[in-house]
Amino acid sequence: MKNLKKIIVTGLLALSVATTAFATSAYNNPAEIVAGLTGRSVESVIDERHDTGKSFGTIAKEAGKLDEFKAEILELRKDQLAARVADGRLTQEQADKILASIEERQALCDGKGYGYGCGYGRGYRDGNGDGYRDGGRHHHNRCGDCRW
C-alpha cells in the first residue's frame, strides 16, 4: 500500500511539473501578446496591422514594449515546440535547433518584421503557413517572430 501511494504521489508531482513547465505563455498568438502588453483589444491590434501593414513587432515597439513582446514570443514558441515534441511531430533535437535559431534571430530583431533576424522562419509545421488575408491583398509577413 505504501508503494502504491508513493507511485501515485510521484506520478502526480511529475504531471504537475510537466504541466507547469509546458504552459509558460499566457497568450495563444502574437496578436494576443501585443494586446495584453499594450492594454488594447486583440481586434484593435489586428485591425491596425491590417490597415497599416505594420508587423505586430512594430506595433509593440511603437508602444515601448518590444523587449516584452520578444520575451513573450519566445515563451509562446517554446510552448509550441514542446507540444510538437510531446505529440511526436518533432524530436527534441529538432526543437532545440529551432529554438536556438529563434534566439539568434531575436537578438537581431528590431521590431520591423521584415527580412531576417526576427524569428524562426518557415517550414516547421506550426500551422502558420504563408497565408494571405482578404483574397490575397494583404500578405502575412512571415519572416520571423516580430512579423506577426
Mean pLDDT: 75
Class inferred from helices and paired strands = mainly alpha
| Main sheet attributes: strand count, strand direction, barrel closure | 2 strands, antiparallel
State the helix count.
6
What are the secondary-structure elements, in order, as H or E?
HHHHHHEE
Number of DSSP strand runs: 2
Sum up the overall morphology in one term: globular
Detailed description of the structure:
With 148 residues, the protein is mainly alpha-helical. The protein is built from six helices and two strands, in the order ααααααββ. A two-stranded antiparallel ribbon has the order 1-2. Helix 2 runs parallel beside helix 4 (56-62) and helix 4 (56-62) packs antiparallel against helix 5. 28% of the residues are buried. Residues 12-21 and 115-148 have low confidence and may be disordered.
